[in-house]
Amino acid sequence: MAHYQYSFSQSEKKLSEEHLLYISSATYGSDWISMYHSHSFSELIYVTNGTGYFCTESQTVPIEKDTLILINPNLRHTEKSAPEHPVTYIALGIDNLHFQFSENEYAAFGIHNFRKERETFLPILQMMLEEVRFPQSSSELICQHLLDILLLKLPRITGHTLTPYSAKNIPGECETLKNYLDTHFQENVSLDTLADISHLNKYYLSHIFTKAFGISPIMYLLERRILNSKYLLKSTDFSITQIAHTTGFSSANYFSQSFKRYTGMTPAMYRKKHQHNIS
Description:
It is built from 9 helices and 11 strands. Helix content is about 45%, strand content about 25%. Strands 1-2-8-3-6-10 form a 6-stranded antiparallel beta sheet, sandwiched between helices. Helix 3 (about 170-185) packs parallel to helix 6 (about 215-235). The chain has helices spanning about 120-135, 140-160, 170-185, 190-200, 200-215, 215-235, 240-245, 250-265, 265-279, and strands at about 1-5, 20-25, 40-50, 50-55, 60-65, 65-70, 75-80, 90-95, 100, 110-115, 160-165. The longest helix has 20 residues, at about 140-160. By secondary structure, the chain is of the alpha+beta class. It is globular.
């Protein structure tokens, strides 16, 4: 399995409410780990080759070359490949976005055959990959521009509506807490910390946050730390202890345990595989 992921900071000005968190490319191999997982953000996956399956806990849907998969936040899912025709795909993680599917506005995911749109859609994704593989000035901003183009094209092609995920039926207190976690995940944050800044009972704030985003505040904090640690493992020579400290974990041991539970591999295994792939 070859896998590349490029994380994004929020240092450059956004053009829209949707924010590009990462771009990744993956190729099925003997080390492919198919684990059910979920995100607090939306995901867009474009299958560039091969055949396989997109799986939720209740459905298994065949996928093939030029399949586009749109995944709403908090859906537990995984991808599986047919060994004889290895799946390759490009994925985008997009924050503050929710897909409303025309056939069922409450659906958790949508799958489309984009064979006719391949020549229009895929080059934009490839341009984004090129920008992050060989970054120059304003690469992140260019990728955000390209994301905006994709999101403007999607409703034309699919008929789906795109809405800001956090704009509807989410209490302001939850938005405040989410923004705090996004910017302070490297610090020592606990439920007591969140209770102090929000002036809410910690059990109540955990309840309303989970109801709003489908994930508890502590799990959201862990997700943000893991996402940042992946970037550091691939792009720096920091030790595991340094990365644990930088991303807010209390110890290298706890970091390693959490990382393996979340990704299926240790930080050292993840680093070795991705630095090998990059080289």
